[in-house]
Automatic annotation (TrEMBL):
<dbReference type="Pfam" id="PF00722">
    <property type="entry name" value="Glyco_hydro_16"/>
</dbReference>
<feature type="domain" description="GH16">
    <location>
        <begin position="133"/>
        <end position="460"/>
    </location>
</feature>
<feature type="compositionally biased region" description="Low complexity">
    <location>
        <begin position="7"/>
        <end position="16"/>
    </location>
</feature>
<keyword id="KW-0472">Membrane</keyword>
<feature type="compositionally biased region" description="Polar residues">
    <location>
        <begin position="37"/>
        <end position="57"/>
    </location>
</feature>
<dbReference type="InterPro" id="IPR000757">
    <property type="entry name" value="Beta-glucanase-like"/>
</dbReference>
<keyword id="KW-0378">Hydrolase</keyword>
<protein>
    <submittedName>
        <fullName>Glycoside hydrolase family 16 protein</fullName>
    </submittedName>
</protein>
<keyword id="KW-0812">Transmembrane</keyword>
<dbReference type="InterPro" id="IPR050546">
    <property type="entry name" value="Glycosyl_Hydrlase_16"/>
</dbReference>
<dbReference type="GO" id="GO:0004553">
    <property type="term" value="F:hydrolase activity, hydrolyzing O-glycosyl compounds"/>
</dbReference>
<keyword id="KW-1133">Transmembrane helix</keyword>
<feature type="transmembrane region" description="Helical">
    <location>
        <begin position="95"/>
        <end position="116"/>
    </location>
</feature>
<feature type="region of interest" description="Disordered">
    <location>
        <begin position="1"/>
        <end position="88"/>
    </location>
</feature>
<dbReference type="GO" id="GO:0005975">
    <property type="term" value="P:carbohydrate metabolic process"/>
</dbReference>
<feature type="compositionally biased region" description="Basic and acidic residues">
    <location>
        <begin position="78"/>
        <end position="88"/>
    </location>
</feature>
<dbReference type="InterPro" id="IPR013320">
    <property type="entry name" value="ConA-like_dom_sf"/>
</dbReference>
Length: 463
């Protein structure tokens, strides 16, 4: 919108006639309209800037021509106002400072004591290095034994363990434990494997040394071969530390384990004399419902008989973070003493299983009075007076890759399991499905052991 222009040169000049219909074109049709002076137009900019204040400050009127008048401070000057509170101090005022300082000092003292007491009570064991195995000198048969059996080791495992270089050998400075297929001829025709013939069997139980194929009833010899080695001959400890650096295998129905058994069954047959599982896993991939090679577990087995194994009270799982335990080697460790036992991965700070021996295991197990068949259960441990019993004897290390089994480690009907535990033809059913599981073994279907270190705790076994 445009506004009428004003002129200061001639305020009496007659306005120029405007186009009819506009507010300023009233002369032909009525009285003329004289525009307001610019300074009176409410929409026009003022002719001058903001008018000067008639009062130079808040303290008095401004005198014209006296120059700029600045803000006058009203701040009270030092000494002008009285401060009676400074003349007499409250005797309690000092405690406002003293009490917080006392509280801080007491808190620091208590914290320091707790830290000192914690460090003082931490058990610092001394150890003797018993074994430092890096395979640089090959397979040391003065320490290690390759077990040879066909009986399934109490779990109905499908592998036959051998003492040949086919299933356990040194390659690129690492111990390789590799499962392989059985000779098809031994499965497809009637045959017998008798380990007693050449006295190679590691067991004195006949069923662990002899097996056969009967094509009529569907029973077969072990469908696969693998290896299981132990340190019983050359490295046993009673309390101490163990570290095994190993890469676990990847492959369906493989069952890798690094674990320990007692040298002597002092308290009775398994599990009365105990078992220490440092690490166990499954070779199946992460989609396996029970957890594949992305999960490991540690456990202790203990109980008055096989039907009352309390392993579930001392069993913990650990899942790998965005990877699997078959991708690279990890250090699987055990620290074991009279007061506690724990397992760990890569560092002692990353514990898996921790068990404190602070009460008799018979009490901790809360076992029933009698077995399901009515047999009364008796306490095999508390008479020693040692809360660590049965884990107070010499144990040796075992490393193996098992395959399959009928003890429930692989759950029936889960993730395409090709056999049923209770079936008389479980081994044959597994063998018939080899086109499904054998390809999964081809790349990483073996355990690679880089090193084994064993320390004996001071005060035992000559340390």
């Amino acid at each position: 919108m445009e506004y009428p222009r004003s002129t200061t040169a001639n305020t009496t000049a007659t306005a120029t006639p405007m186009r009819p219909g506009t507010p300023d074109s009233a002369e032909p049709y009525g009285d003329s309209i004289t525009p307001l002076p610019r300074q009176q137009n409410p929409f026009a900019s003022p002719l001058t800037s903001r008018p000067a204040s008639t009062t130079g400050s808040m303290v008095g009127p401004r005198v014209p021509g006296a120059g700029p008048n600045y803000f006058h401070s009203r701040r009270v000057k030092r000494g002008e106002a009285e401060r009676p509170w400074t003349k007499k101090k409250d005797p309690k005022e000092k405690w406002v400072t003293i009490l917080p300082l006392i509280g801080i000092l007491i808190g620091l003292g208590i914290s320091g004591f707790l830290i000192w007491d914690g460090l003082r009570t931490v058990v610092k064991h001394n150890y003797c290095l018993l074994l430092d195995e890096d395979w640089s000198e090959g397979f040391n048969d003065k320490v290690w034994t390759k077990e040879v059996e066909v009986g399934g080791f109490g779990n109905g495992q499908f592998e036959m363990t051998t003492n040949t270089d086919e299933n356990a050998y040194i390659e690129n400075g690492k111990l390789v434990i590799k499962p392989t297929l059985q000779d098809a001829k031994l499965i497809e025709t009637n045959n017998i494997i008798n380990l007693l013939t050449d006295k190679s069997c590691s067991s004195d139980i006949w069923s662990n040394c002899v097996t056969s194929t009967n094509v009529t009833n569907g029973t077969i010899v072990n469908p696969v071969k693998s290896a299981r080695i132990n340190s019983k001959k050359g490295a046993v400890i009673k309390y101490g530390r163990i570290e095994v650096k190993a890469q676990l295998p990847a492959g369906d129905w493989l069952w890798p384990a690094i674990w320990m058994l007692p040298v002597d069954s002092v308290y009775g047959e398994w599990p009365q004399s105990g078992e220490i599982d440092i690490v166990e896993s499954r070779g199946n991939n992460y989609t396996y419902s029970q957890g594949g090679n992305n999960i490991v577990s540690s456990a202790l087995h203990w109980g008055p008989n096989t039907a009352n194994d309390a392993w579930w009270r001392t069993n913990v799982k650990r899942e790998a973070l965005h990877t699997t335990y078959a991708k690279k080697a990890h250090t699987f460790g055990l620290e074991w003493s009279e007061k506690y036992l724990f397992t760990y991965i890569d560092t002692r700070l990353l514990q898996v299983l921790y068990t404190k021996f602070d009460e008799p295991l018979w009490k901790r197990g809360n076992f029933p009075i009698a077995d399901s068949n009515g047999t009364r259960l008796s306490d095999p441990w508390s008479q020693t007076g040692n809360d660590a019993t049965p884990f107070d004897q010499d144990f040796y290390l075992i490393m193996n890759v098992a395959v399959g089994g009928t003890n429930g480690w692989f759950k029936d009907g889960s993730s395409g399991k090709p056999w049923v535990d209770g079936s008389a033809t479980a081994k044959k059913d597994f063998w018939n499905a080899r086109d499904q599981w054998m390809p999964t073994w081809e790349k990483d279907g073996q355990m690679l052991v880089e090193s084994v270190k064993i320390w004996q705790q001071q005060g035992y076994n000559g340390c």
